[in-house]
Design brief:
Helix content is about 0%, strand content about 50%. The chain has about 240 residues and is mainly beta. It comes from Novosphingobium taihuense.
């Protein structure tokens, strides 16, 4: 990822954010106990959302989270288990742990994750939901025509997880190149780029280009443009209020 300035408040480079966090000693299993107990949150000001960088304890179990949690593995390996169902997450993989569902986990020493926690409504699944990047994508709506500079892109999507109220949605999306003028974000959106690169410019003129492998967040209330000059594919987690 390249950026023209630091302290960009409308979008966050999550790998850089996690790299700056002072976690406990990863070699001492007694230092870190409980799910995501060793963590640091971004200073988000809107919505029922928290975004954390967390060092995961080697193993444990939880009676049920208070909110849905989208989990993206930055480093290491994490296995999530609910009953007879297990989901193995290597580096750069992701899954959703639905609220209120008991689960257990095992993690390689030093495993670091980004968690997007959304407490806007009831869970939309009974078990852990992996984000399957290989699923066939189906056509989805392009950006608003009045915001586009140039041709209308072809966009596709697959939704792996949707909360019961429809406000928290996670999946995979792709698009042909396009340039979109600045718009206000009514939502928080986590993105992990699988292909391509995207340049954002926010309302203060701050500019950043994110490339394949980068993980970042655009926060609710930001005013950002989008420019992609090649095919883009991403994993996303979005909180968008219904009203």
């Amino acid at each position: 990822m390249t950026t023209t300035t630091s302290n960009v408040h409308s979008f966050y480079d999550l790998r850089a954010f996690a790299a700056d966090v002072r976690f406990g000693d990863a070699t001492d299993a007694d230092v870190i106990t409980g799910w995501a107990a060793d963590s640091c949150a971004l200073p988000l000001s809107q919505g029922p959302v928290a975004v954390l960088a967390a060092r995961i304890a080697p193993k444990g179990n939880h009676a049920g989270l208070e909110a849905d949690e989208f989990v993206f593995v930055l480093e290491g390996k994490l296995t999530l288990v609910k009953g007879n169902h297990s989901v193995a997450l290597p580096r750069n993989a992701s899954a959703v742990i639905p609220a209120g569902k008991p689960f257990a986990w095992q993690a390689a020493v030093g495993t670091t994750v980004i968690i997007m926690r959304c407490g806007s409504g009831p869970a939309g699944a009974e078990t852990i939901v992996p984000i399957d990047e290989s699923m066939d994508l189906v056509p989805s709506g392009p950006p608003l025509a009045e915001l586009l500079v140039g041709a209308t892109p072809s966009c596709r999507n697959f939704t792996d997880y949707r909360s019961a109220n429809g406000e928290f949605v996670c999946g995979t999306w792709d698009s042909t190149p396009y340039h979109r003028l600045s718009m206000p974000y009514r939502h928080h959106e986590f993105m992990h780029l699988l292909e391509g690169d995207v340049t954002f410019v926010d309302g203060n003129g701050r500019e950043a280009t994110f490339s394949r492998g980068d993980a970042f967040l655009v926060e609710m209330g930001a005013h950002c443009s989008w420019e992609s000059r090649n095919h883009v594919k991403k994993v996303y987690a979005i909180y968008r209020p219904a009203a």
